[in-house]
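Hi everyone, sorry if this is the wrong subforum. Our group has a chain we'd like a structural model of before ordering constructs, and none of us has done structure prediction before. Sequence below.
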Amino acid sequence: MEKPASTRQLKVGREIQKDLAEIIRSKGMAAFGGAMVTVSEVRVSPDLSVAKVYVSIFPSEKQESVMDTLQQNLKSYRGELGRQVGRQLRIVPDLVFYLDTSLDYAEHIEELLKK
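Answer:
Right subforum, don't worry. Here is the predicted structure as tokens:
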């Protein structure tokens, strides 16, 4: 069982979430083929070296292409993040993007309830 995140992990996670959301927003929807990309959560490892970035993508048909785009530009996102959080953090964590499927799940449940 995973132990709960420390206050520092939560603070760093929130800061990274805010900054990454801004970086992704600044790229514009065109960079993601017209899809809307939202950073829904960031979980940071206890040693602050890895940040798991959960993104939700709308419309869901574009999820695969957007995830590919995020993976291909990983280094540049980390570089931009480093410029923003460099003063607060000694090391900029490695970013790992995950698809947040909670919106799809909620949509699926809603469809089931309508039946």
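For your construct planning: Strands lie at 36-44, 50-58, 94-99. DSSP finds four helices and three strands in the chain.
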